[in-house]
Amino acid sequence: MAIQTEAAARVGSERADQDRAGQAGANGESVTRLLSGIVEDAQALMQQQLTLFQVELKNDLRRTRNAAIPLMVGVLVCGLAVIILCAMLALLVDEVLVLPWWAGFAGVGGVLLAVGVALVFWGKTRFDAFNPLPDQTVEGIKENLQWKTKK
Questions:
Q1: Mean per-residue pLDDT over the chain, rounded
Q2: Contact criterion met (CB below 8 Å) for 42 and 143
Q3: Torsion angle of the four alpha carbons 20, 26, 27, 30, in this order, in degrees rounded to the nearest 10
Q4: Residue 66 has pLDDT above 90, yes or no
Q5: Average pLDDT value for residue range 118-146
């Protein structure tokens, strides 16, 4: 009886050792599966952010194009009107002040040149202050790249 009890205890401990070995293998597999899932999720997130960046950039470019077309046509029409009005103003200066016609054109042209230069510098400073890229998406991509390089 003591021998049977001893044999049963030995068989029981062997089974417990086998169960522990099986659980350790399962734990190793589950950790591997978990890590591969994390890597796959990170890759999917990176792909989604790149896609979002492309879509946002395309939308911004489309909106910019759609706003620029009427703006450029309006600028062109206004430019033609300004040329005609400036010619009229130069001839008016010639007529009223009894100056040579070239003096009237030179005066009007000089004033327009000064205004144009001031507007160009003002526009350049405004343009330098604006960033056309989608900031949130770029920041998300930077964070993912930093996270990926740390691994």
A1: 79
A2: no
A3: -170
A4: no
A5: 78
Residue 102 corresponds to which tokens in the numbers above?
């070239």
- As a residue count, the chain comes to 151
Distance CA 130, CA 39 (A): 36
What integer pLDDT is reported at residue 6 of this predicted model?
A: 57
Q: Give the largest Cα separation in the chain, rounded.
A: 139
Average pLDDT in the 22-43 region?
A: 77
For residue 53, what are the contacts with CB-CB under 8 A and spacing of at least 6? Answer: 134, 137, 138, 141
All residues at 6 or more sequence positions from 14 whose CB lies less than 8 Å from its CB, including other chains: none
88 close to 104: Cβ distance less than 8 angstroms: no
DSSP 68-113: HHHHHHHHHHHHHHHHHHHHHHHHHHHHHHT--HHHHHHHHHHHHH
Q: What is the enclosing helix (H) or strand (E) of 1?
A: none
Q: How many other CB atoms are found less than 10 A from the CB of residue 108?
A: 19
Confidence band, pLDDT 50/70/90 cuts, at residue 93:
confident
- Determine how many CB atoms are found less than 10 A away from the CB of residue 49: 19
**pLDDT band at residue 119 under the 50/70/90 scheme:** very high
